[in-house]
Every structure is written in structure tokens, then in C-alpha cells.
Amino acid sequence: MEEPLFISPKLNNFLPDLVFPQNLPSCICAHVLDPQPGETVLDMCAAPGGKTCHIGTLMQNSGVLIALDKAKKKMDTLKSNLLKSGCTIAQVYCQDASKSVQDGSSNDSPGVLGSPPYRPETFDRILLDAPCSALGQRPSLSNPITMKELSSYPPLQRKLLIAAVKLLKVGGVLVYSTCTFTSSENEGQISWLLGEFPNIQLESQGKFHLNKESDRCSQFPGCTLSNEQLSLLQSFHPAFIPPTASCMLSPNIDTIGFFIAKLRKFR
User: Fold this and answer.
1) Catalytic residue list
2) Average pLDDT of adjacent 10-residue blocks, the chain of 267 residues
């Protein structure tokens, strides 16, 4: 292939102070989280900052927004995007979010107005857009990922999920998302999480559950989720285009591969 299929302008750096291009599923994440002005919110894996900027906008720049990422080389981009978006409530720290919870012997200062680690049950809402195999990214004709690398993501995601549950307030909302479509990183993680933490429950994504056409209906090995629970999960998969689709370029179908789950903590 030598010629592009479509000729369209790139959106990179197009009106950078006014426009932040995002894929549809990425936009949905912040709306599913539904952060409110005045709340204390955590973005656990924030770089490059698109979802963080969106969260700050939905919070109307009122409250506390903590943005963590362990990649030092991404810090400048994260801070730059927050500055361009006009987000003034974000505090950015280079930190492995799986290690952001204070232990019982810690004498660190309380609260979230400072660097991690943080006390358990500090945050009203948490977004965990987890590191993943990124198999949903497109366009891509091939992928060099190895089985060893592919199998390395679920253990890391579970460490982050454990930290998220600890940091979330009772009654708080956790949104877990990935840009891949392997069951071990998506439905499998939710199945594991609900089994490990009986005080965590799946919740409807409401009007932002857009892609019901591509939701997975079948079980997979090791899954303990009921059909009702599976129906609460939102999956975007380029291959899941029903033969009855009236338009192959439907915005609810023609996206990157993505997964979104909304959970709430009780007691």
C-alpha cells in the first residue's frame, strides 16, 4: 500500500488551545466516570492527559484532580496538555499508582493536597485507564507483541485495581478501561475483581452506554459474570460490525478497540 485510502487533514496541533482530538471511546470514559465540581478525583495512569483534561472540564475546574503516571518522559506532555486545556485543579505526580496507597505505619501528611501516597478511601471517583496490550489501536496491519509481553499486563492491572479499591471512598465510583479486546485484560479482570472484593459492584453506564451492538454476550473460560453483568460492560471492537448495520462508518462501531466498566464501592 503506497497511497492513503482517504485524504484528510491531520488534527495534530490543530487549534491546540481549543481542540483536543480523541477517539469516541476515550471521550466516553470521562462521561461514564461523571466527575462533579468540588469532588476529589484520581486519574491513576494519566499521560498523555486527554482524559484528565476532560475530567477537569466536567468538574468545571472546581475540586481536586490528582493525575499520576510512572513514565517520567510523559510528564512534560501531560503538564502541557493540562495547561493548554486551562485545567487549573490538576496536581501531577510521577508515581507508580499501584504504590500510591499509604500503609498503616505511614506518617505521611494526610489528605490529597500533596504528593502520594494517599490514605485509603480518599477519592470520590477514580479512573483507571490501565496499561494494556493496546491491541485495539488502529490502523495496524501487524503487531509485534509477544506472548510473554501479552501475559505481563493482567498482573499489573490487578495491582492497580487493588490500589484503586483501597483509595476509593465508600459510595465512590471506579471506571476501568483499556484500549484492547483480550478477555483476560477486560471481562476477566472484572470477574476477578468482583470475586476478590464483594463490596464492589458493577453499575449501569446509562446514556453513555453507546455501543450495545458490539457487547459480548458469550461466556469465556474462567468467567463468573452473569449475562446481566456482561450487559453492563461496554466493548468497542472494529470486528464487531453486525451484518445488518446500515452504515459501516457508524460512529458507535468504527472506532478503536476499547473496553469500559463502571463500578461502585459499597461499605
Assistant:
1) 179
2) 61 68 90 98 96 96 97 94 93 97 66 81 98 86 86 97 98 97 93 97 94 55 83 82 54 79 95
pTM for the model stands at 0.89
Give the dihedral sign, CA 148/154/158/159: positive
What b/e readout covers 59-87, taking b as 16+ CB neighbours within 10 angstroms?
beeebbbbbbbbeeebbeebeebbeebeb
Distances (CA, A) of 85 to 15, 110, 160: 11, 29, 27
Query: In whole angstroms, what is the distance from residue 57 CA to residue 123 CA?
Result: 18
* Strand (E) or helix (H) holding 64: strand 64-69
C-alpha to C-alpha distance for 247 and 233, rounded to whole angstroms = 24
Q: How far is CA 200 from CA 131, 213, 263, in A?
A: 21, 26, 6
Residues 186 and 258: their CA atoms lie apart, in Å, by 9
Look up cell 469500559; give the residue. 260
Q: Which of 110, 76, 115 is nearest to 95 (CA)?
A: 115
Q: Is 147 strand, coil or helix?
A: helix
Look at the block and give the residue holding cell 463468573. 224
